Amino acid sequence: MLLGVLALQGDSREHIHLLETLDVAAVAVRDAADLSAIDGLVIPGGESTTISKLLEIFDLLDPIRSFAKTRPVLGTCAGLILLSDEVEGLLQGQQLIGGLPIISSRNAYGGQLNSFEATVTFSSGEEENVAFIRAPKILDSDSTEVIARLGDEAVAVRSNNLFGASFHPELTGGTHLHKLFIEFVKETKS
């Protein structure tokens, strides 16, 4: 199994390192040709508007949209925004990958100075400390499976082959979200 991490902007190195600590081979994805070699894709946190522009500049928007229709994709923070079908506060001209039937809200937990760490609870009952950095909120998750909550709020969801999380587990050593994604990728391969 080989996973790819979109490496145009954001914390791609941290995701690659986390995947490697879980004994999963991971590569940086920078062009459409890279997509043909991977079994699943992680879209990291960063700045969603910048990533969106870079996807267009590097002719990756349509190839990733096609990939996301059938292949496993995990988006964290900015990646969640890009996978959302609808985004509150979307900047004019910003393109989305879409496919995840949620409404998210950009920077809804506050700006950079409002960033925080918190313990989220996964549907399995496992708890992990994760980082919320200029994090989006999931406003409507009714058409998805909620896989993690912060209190009563959905902060990680899944719909078919798409996973999305408001938080950064890769910055705090959290592994549960990535393990769930890896298990799903393994299932799709067998």
Summarize the structure.
The protein is an alpha/beta fold. 28% of the residues lie in helices and 33% in strands.
Total beta strands: 12
**Approximately what portion of the residues adopt beta-strand conformation?**
25-35%
Q: How far is the N terminus from the C terminus?
A: 11 Å
Number of domains: 1
Number of helices: 6
Q: In angstroms, what is the radius of gyration?
A: 15 Å
Query: What would you call the shape?
Result: globular
CATH class: Alpha Beta
Average pLDDT over all residues = 94
Order of helices and strands: EHEHEHHEHEEEEEEEEH
List the helices and strands and how they pair.
Blueprint lengths: L1 E5 L5 H10 L3 E5 L2 H4 L4 E4 L4 H10 L3 H10 L2 E4 L1 H6 E5 L11 E6 L10 E7 L4 E6 L4 E4 L4 E6 L2 E7 L2 E4 L10 H14 L1
Parallel strand pairs: 1-2, 1-3, 3-4, 4-12, 5-6
Antiparallel strand pairs: 6-9, 7-8, 7-10, 10-11, 11-12
Explained architecture:
The protein is of the alpha/beta class and 190 residues long. The chain has one domain (2-189): Rossmann fold (3-Layer(aba) Sandwich). 28% of the residues lie in helices and 33% in strands. The protein is built from 6 helices and 12 strands. The mean pLDDT is 94.
